[in-house]
Amino acid sequence: MIYLDYNASTPLRPQAKDAMAEVLEWTGNPSSPHGAGRRLRAVIDEARKTISDFTGAQRVVFTSGGTEANAFVLNHFAKGPLLVSSLEHDSMLKNAVNPYIVPSTKEGVIDLNALDKQLTSFTSPGLLSMMLVNNETGIIQPVQEAARLARSRGWRVHTDGIQAIGHVPLSLETLGVDFMTLSAHKCGGPIGIGALVMREETHLNPLIRGGGQEYGMRSGTLSAPLAAGFGMALRASLKDDLTALATFQQQIEENLPDAIIYGKQAPRVANTVCLGMPGVPIELQLMAFDLKGIAVGAGAACSSGTMKPSHVLVAMGCSQQEAQSALRVSMGWNTKGSDIDAFIKGWKEIYAKPSLKEAS
Amino acid sequence: MSDRPIYLDYQATTPCDPRVLQVMLPYFTEEFGNPHSRSHAYGWRAEEVVEEARLKVAHLIHADPKAVIFTSGATESNNLAIKGVAHFYKAQKDHIVTCATEHKCVLDSCRHLEQEGFKVTYLPVNSQGIIDLKQLEEAITDRTSLVSIMAVNNEIGVIQPLAEIGKICRAKGVFFHTDAAQAVGKIPIDVDAMNIDLLSISGHKIYGPKGVGALYVRRKPRVRLTSLITGGGQERGMRSGTLSPPLCVGLGEACAIAEAEMASESARLTALRDRFYKTIQAELDEVYLNGDLEHRIPGNLNLSFAFVEGEGLMMGMKDLAVSSGSACTSASLEPSYVLKALGVEEDMAHTSLRIGFGRFTTEAEVDTAAKKIIQEVKRLREMSPLWDMHRDGVDIKSIQWAHH
Amino acid sequence: MAYSTKVIDHYENPRNVGTLDAKDTAVGTGLVGAPACGDVMKLQIKVNDNGVIEDAKFKTFGCGSAIASSSLVTEWIKGKTLEEAGAIKNTVIAQHLSLPPVKLHCSMLAEDAIKAAINDYQLKKSA
Questions:
Q1: Is B127 within 8 Å of chain A by CB?
Q2: Are B228 and B206 in contact, with CB atoms under 8 Å apart?
Q3: Residues of chain B neighbouring A5 (CB-CB closer than 8 A)
Q4: Were both Cys, which of B97, B110, B147, B197 would link to B175 (CB 3.0–4.6 Å)?
Q5: Domains of chain C and any CATH numbers
Q6: Percent of chain B topping pLDDT 70
Q7: B32 and B67: one domain?
Q8: pTM, rounded to two decimals
């Protein structure tokens, strides 16, 4: 089986696995004052420090994942106004209460001119939230520029950095953002843990209340093994061979002249290719790839059960039909050249089968 | 294990059962799919194992698997159940009934609702830690949407009369939520027979992994709630976010083991607990049990060692991991609010230890622990001015203490 | 909570645990704190004719830091005049034992205990 769906979930890195395997054997509750608890707390604090070194954050609040981290920050700013980009992940769009949508350009990046106008139309500032790297297209968003515009008018800025880990520097200072969402399983850590990192020692209203863990902002017993895996995965992601990924990306695009490559005109990360197979519905493509033992993605993983057209591609001006035939190839730390060769070969074979094409 | 402290804090957390760990591990590595990826076999396989786990969780509480949703833990489950139901029904109903000895996360959720304008009744408990059913009945009004009463208390291990509470709630037409983090796998639970509408489960309190839990949300009659975390619409739209197959599998396996071994484990732990308690009672005077002994899970004792301060006592027992007060609040110096609710006087609350026995506790460990506690209590009593007064027949309450 | 090695030492090997005869006019007894607050200290001093503390004993109900604070001050006040003993500040005790902020009240209680014992002795003398 060839796995090319890293943006949905990245296989656990061996470094993260080793770190977790050790801690999984330990007993204790990290909140307990006795030795067993202290040892686990030290593991969590070490992971916290890794994340904080990685981003320059003053505060790192662990959550159950990216979706919760997004819900957490939006809950605090629920009174609005909320400006959210049209390219966001479902977890942003659905957690936002009455958001104002920032449109995107045909190239698949947020429209800075439109944002500027929107910002001036509000009398009081609120929160701007936009992702750093789009999960479907891999397009890098102009967060730095958008944040500068927003902050100059007193807005706070949040970015979903989940798909950017290892590809784009995540310094909160450089990006000029106040909050960032991170998720472990999108960078080779375990599913079940994420974080909201904060540039300053801010206090946000908790979404989950109770024992007062995580600076009183997120109650619940933390899992030290998950935290350890998260920290190690982040560290390891810095050493990924991005040149190799870029070569793979180029190979796919050059060897498939019939494919429509989305987001080619915009700055992109090296691990993602979003490509359309003219005339072949996505369901049939997926079935055919599955028979060949190749796992690829379609649109956002979270909504892929429904096979509705990708809102991201629609926002980029694609027709409903085009948006429905787009496939996502995403690669990572364990992707090999032979995987890419197999994908290219498979794509050509599927495209060559006349029976799959819609009678149009 | 001999160089490690003896672990007697099973209500704070339980070690992950090696059998659970073994079943989980492959899903961290070889089978790493996102269970919500519908486009390939990795995703399907992940979804399959998550559903199998859901079945096992449901089986343990006699529930419809479709009514079980996975969460990040009991804290989230409790937040979701209480705030979720309150918010969904707030147009017609604005009143919640709970109890003074609930876990912090239940009380905090309720306090937050009060700030939003909801009314909350905090039922008292009797000296044994159990609520009064008549008071419960009287507290429910036509504005009440939810009654939230924990199944088993985390500090004193006392079991509330769930079936009776469920009966009252059903008759009055209000939903019954129970925080069963300390109960599931330890006492038989049947959500239908007990008329439980929502039930919170924790992974790491039942020898499963940390970072996962579950919430049972009844489908017939249907309970609706406003979700805390929205997004991809996973878990019947009640809880979005990518589910972790290894964590779900771990919880499922933990539930299956708990179900298979509940009877034998209960018998074994009851014997261990009785052995420990008898040894202590034979050697020490002035030791008081907090909470009912009969309506109590087998693995818990909460004892006040009069005239010896709990934290000082813990310090003398570096080779024992026990707890004074709840794990979540023991960083602060306030005496336990649970013991306060039982009417335990503050001076006695300061002398309490929670001793939790569990699956991996051995008879030898229990004997060593009892010996160590007896030795330390005796040593510290020799150092305690209050012990002197007690021996001289001075009533400590007759002294005018300067409170600081 | 990690305890300093000095706190652990005093907790494990407390100095001068015991009782002096409270009825003796040369003995002053201080009893401070409250059981409901989680700590009670009893500090006794025996003062010679030159106004020097020649013996000190304590008993404490409390956490390790409270026990260590009282044990430490019994060592310190022995051989001191009442005036010198009365001048011992809680901050010095806290610093010596490296008490964390949440445990500062233990050192305050020890300072109070010295003052209370001296007060009791002086009351007896003047009676």
A1: no
A2: no
A3: 34, 37, 39-40, 42-43
A4: B197
A5: 5-126 (3.90.1010.10)
A6: 96
A7: yes
A8: 0.86
